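$ ./design --mode recover --in tokens.txt
reading tokens...
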């Protein structure tokens, strides 16, 4: 016996054994009658298949039309997007004009050799719904901003290919800040002229557009306290963090936001250029690696501009809709504060944690955001449950370690003088302590009153 034959027998893969017909001619007819009845007495005239102990061949089996799906992975079935039959209704296409430009700085069609009029596809009905200013061309936008059109074109780098050539020619101040858990964050603060334009866009345009109800970051009337209250007293708490939240929002997404509000394509492009940033080629990076440079390579939403939080909330509107409805289907609660996602629910949520986490990852990736997996947490009721720095085990409260540390600082300021406690060399230490006391008072008024009494007893002449 060969080795392979012995191995096949050990696994039970034995060849079919065929028996020879009987040699006795007298019993041959009897055996044939008993083993092979006539077709009239047999229910099926086809010959019966031979039993075989050998492994069935895949080629002999008919190929199934639908294969069995894997049950170990959760799948998302889209329900909010209906399949459109026939031709999809498009917005008004751009108009090619033969002759002079329809307006200043009109875009030139390189294939057709004519100017493109992108100012005719606005929707004033949508603009009036949110009480937004109406303009269709760059001239009208410049008049609303209060700058000459050439000055506005200079702000969007119209004359330098849409990107500053050097760091000095950029309209942002660039500053690298080291993250608490490692890595670097780029702060892009707009200069005075661009900051004034972005502030006007924020106050008179973006502030009129509401964010989703589950969004609590940078929303008027909401704070970390309103973000934490829905999760008070829950048995299970899931915390997720989005990586590079602002830089993930690209120029195309910002233009799509302004288009959805009802602005024409020409104005949406100019507004997108005014509220996004493109880094100069000579900017130095703290981490000279592909993963450090890649988020900032394309035109993105700058962290430090006054319009970035509002635009980031609007870009995450679809994600908030899907995650809030998804959490509600499991009997859970969902909130978001900037890039911090929180889902909480009763103890029954424990049996569906695997499915919930998988589907949350899928929804976030489908909405074109990415996770910082090192900050994902699963917390239970026997642990300290914190949501954006607020303890939510029984009621909203301040972290005990932070309260004790601030209380010790105020006590030492009262005994030894405030100059001995300003170890980080804060410029305005007086208002710095007032702000920290106000934060504690917002979460726990009783503890905040005790700290305020210690603060009033400090002699600031020491």
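writing sequence...
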């Amino acid at each position: 016996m060969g080795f392979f034959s012995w191995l096949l027998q050990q696994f039970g893969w034995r060849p079919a054994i065929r028996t020879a017909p009987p040699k006795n001619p007298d019993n041959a007819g009897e055996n044939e009658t008993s083993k092979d009845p006539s077709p009239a007495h047999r229910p099926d005239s086809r010959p019966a298949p031979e039993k075989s102990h050998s492994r069935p061949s895949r080629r002999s089996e008919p190929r199934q039309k639908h294969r069995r799906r894997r049950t170990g992975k959760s799948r998302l079935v889209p329900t909010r997007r209906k399949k459109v039959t026939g031709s999809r209704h498009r917005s008004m296409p751009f108009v090619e004009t033969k002759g002079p430009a329809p307006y200043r700085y009109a875009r030139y069609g390189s294939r057709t050799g004519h100017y493109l009029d992108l100012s005719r596809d606005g929707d004033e009905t949508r603009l009036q719904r949110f009480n937004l200013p109406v303009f269709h061309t760059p001239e009208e936008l410049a008049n609303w901003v209060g700058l000459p059109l050439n000055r506005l074109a200079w702000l969007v780098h119209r004359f330098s290919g849409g990107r500053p050539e050097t760091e000095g020619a950029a309209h942002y101040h660039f500053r690298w800040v080291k993250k608490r858990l490692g890595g670097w964050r780029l702060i892009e603060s707009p200069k005075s002229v661009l900051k004034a334009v972005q502030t006007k866009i924020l106050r008179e345009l973006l502030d009129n557009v509401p964010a989703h109800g589950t969004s609590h970051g940078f929303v008027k009337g909401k704070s970390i306290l309103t973000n934490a209250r829905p999760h008070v007293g829950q048995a299970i708490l899931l915390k997720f963090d989005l990586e590079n939240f602002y830089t993930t929002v690209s120029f195309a997404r910002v233009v799509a936001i302004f288009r959805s509000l009802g602005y024409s394509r020409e104005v949406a492009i100019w507004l997108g250029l005014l509220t996004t940033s493109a880094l100069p080629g000579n900017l130095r990076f703290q981490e000279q690696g592909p993963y450090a440079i890649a988020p900032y390579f394309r035109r993105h939403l700058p962290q430090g501009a006054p319009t970035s939080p509002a635009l980031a909330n609007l870009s995450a509107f679809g994600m908030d809709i899907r995650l809030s409805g998804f959490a509600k289907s499991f009997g859970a609660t969902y909130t978001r504060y900037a890039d911090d996602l929180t889902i909480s629910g009763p103890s029954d949520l424990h049996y569906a944690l695997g499915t919930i986490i998988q589907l949350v990852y899928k929804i976030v990736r489908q909405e074109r955001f990415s996770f910082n997996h090192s900050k994902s947490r699963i917390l239970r009721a026997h642990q300290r449950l914190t949501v954006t720095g607020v303890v939510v085990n029984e009621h909203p409260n301040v972290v005990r370690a932070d309260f004790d540390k601030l209380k010790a600082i105020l006590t030492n300021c009262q005994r030894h003088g405030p100059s001995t406690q300003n170890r980080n060399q804060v410029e305005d230490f007086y208002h710095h302590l007032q702000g920290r006391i106000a934060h504690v008072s917002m979460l726990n008024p009783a503890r905040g009153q005790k700290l305020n009494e210690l603060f009033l007893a400090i002699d600031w002449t020491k």
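exit 0
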